[in-house]
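Design a sequence for this backbone.
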């Protein structure tokens, strides 16, 4: 995740922390601003900035370059990132002045749109929808390089994580011990993007709550196992039927 990111944060608590794997990999949407004509050793405003004094590329040139950075791409992670190399975080190596080769990783940019230009400040603002694991600051730096320029990230706001949007989020200023429970989202909502199957209360609920195998429902990938509106578990099928990945209920 880019260090300047603000906006939407999905916080899991209690038993729902077991569902984190189904949230982490969801697509993200961002509003991102880049300053052109300068470079940063971390590709963002937290690094050491060198102003090259070049102007902002023309609007039509920026718009014309965006399709080449949409779709399935290979992206080299920045040195100032939390990825590990032989057990050491890359940002720790970066702080020590060490640069290592990084393997390019596949990412998907669903949409990449220019929304605002400020020639006086040499900044451009974009709306970006992308797969999990995308480094927006790398995307903006690569875009600038393709235009014969340079840029670094100055602001990043996360607008959505999968089906969660910032418009539905609560400000942390509204969180108080006596009212916190009013803002809790049910576990079933957390994984609402997964397919759903229903099991009968008489026998099915007990089997699922004990993590036992259930019959095949012919559902691809992970799916929610529900009973009377309650999320019991997340299952996945193999040759022998459904097997538990995460069990939330207890008998």
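Sequence:
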């Amino acid at each position: 995740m880019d260090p300047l990111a603000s906006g939407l944060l999905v916080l899991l608590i209690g038993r729902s922390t077991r569902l984190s794997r189904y949230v982490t990999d969801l697509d993200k949407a961002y509003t991102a601003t880049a300053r052109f004509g300068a470079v940063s050793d971390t590709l963002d405003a937290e690094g050491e900035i060198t102003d090259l004094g070049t102007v902002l590329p023309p609007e039509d040139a920026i718009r014309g370059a965006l399709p080449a950075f949409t779709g399935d791409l290979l992206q080299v992670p920045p040195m100032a990132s939390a990825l590990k190399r032989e057990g050491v975080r890359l940002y720790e190596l970066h702080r020590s002045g060490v640069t290592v080769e990084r393997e390019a990783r596949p990412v998907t940019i669903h949409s990449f749109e220019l929304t605002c230009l400020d020639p006086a400040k040499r900044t451009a603002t974009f709306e970006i929808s992308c797969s999990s694991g995308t480094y927006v600051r790398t995307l903006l730096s690569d875009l600038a390089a393709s235009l014969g320029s340079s840029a670094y990230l100055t602001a990043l706001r996360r607008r959505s994580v999968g089906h969660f949007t910032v418009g539905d989020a609560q400000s942390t200023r509204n969180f108080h011990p006596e009212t916190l429970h009013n803002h809790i989202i049910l576990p079933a909502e957390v994984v609402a993007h997964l397919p759903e199957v229903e099991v009968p209360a008489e026998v099915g609920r007990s089997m699922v709550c004990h993590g036992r195998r259930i019959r095949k429902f012919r559902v691809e990938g992970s799916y929610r196992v529900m009973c009377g509106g309650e999320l019991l578990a997340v299952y996945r099928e193999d040759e022998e039927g459904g097997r538990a990945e995460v069990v939330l209920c207890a008998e």
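The chain is about 15% helix and 35% strand.
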